[in-house]
Amino acid sequence: MIELKDVVKKYGRKEVLKGVSFTASKGEITCLIGVNGVGKTTILNAIMKLTPIQSGEILVDDEKVTKETFEKVTFIPDATTMLPNLTIEEAMDFMNDFYKVWNQKRADELLKFFNLNQKDKISSLSKGNTAKTNLLLGLALDVDYVLMDEPFSGIDIFSREQIAEVFTTHLIEDRGVIITTHEINDIEHLIDKAVLLDEGKIYKEFNTEEIRENEGKSVIDVMREVYRG
Ligand SMILES: Nc1ncnc2c1ncn2[C@@H]1O[C@H](COP(=O)(O)OP(=O)(O)OP(=O)(O)O)[C@@H](O)[C@H]1O
Questions:
Q1: Which domain holds residue 15?
Q2: Which UniProt keywords apply (predicted)?
Q3: Which atom from ligand 1 is nearest to the alpha carbon of 32?
Q4: CA 185 / ligand 1 centre spacing (Å)
Q5: Total domain count, the chain
Q6: 9, 41, 50, 178: which to mutate for ligand 1, most atoms within 8 A of CB?
Q7: CB crowding 28-55: b at 16 or more within 10 Å, else e
Q8: For residue 27, what is the domain's CATH number?
Q9: What ipTM, to 2 d.p.?
Q10: pTM, full prediction
Q11: Which of 22, 92, 111, 165 is 20 to 30 A off residue 171, Cα-Cα?
């Protein structure tokens, strides 16, 4: 389980996270939801220690984040291009050399799943194929937790559907996923838990199936209540 306990993050004097606490379990897809600038990416960066926090705690499987944690967690950034000068094949070789948790079999399956051509240079890929390549390079690591920042950002409906489909396959397996997205429609039916952020705090955290069954509400219904008052 990934656990944030009362995390406070400031950029200069601006307090972006004002005591954020939530958990994300293995085997579940947890979706961070909130308007632009609320701090979703900051949370993912803080989990990866890419940005320091002022107070609070972040635990992975009950332990503080250390270098070893990164054999358990991978971060798939938004559509920015990783390793632009390489072909997809060269990027996979690079990952293979760099990470002992690289799983070539799963990489080959993902290549096929996303219909990518491994001879293509990454800098020449469309935005949708760049996002798919980023997902391939992240999901082919044998780690327990996957953090994804806006995997659907700026890409067409068909690519979004294909990316959403990967969540329903064995390629995700029983890993824990934390995802940020504004495209809730694409994955509403796939997420297990929603964490709604507002003004630097968790406004609401709920199990999507429970709220569907008990209150007959979708994630979007709850978002409307929260953000539109
Ligand atoms: N490196 C930085 N230096 C200063 N301020 C920053 C930095 N990174 C983010 N911020 C600010 O922190 C706030 C939260 O940013 P963050 O990117 O985490 O939001 P977000 O919820 O992911 O937004 P979006 O939905 O637009 O991606 C914003 O006001 C942003 O301007």
A1: 2-228
A2: ATP-binding, Nucleotide-binding, Transport
A3: 21
A4: 23
A5: 1
A6: 41
A7: bbbbbbbeeebbbbbbbbbbbeeeebee
A8: 3.40.50.300
A9: 0.96
A10: 0.93
A11: 22
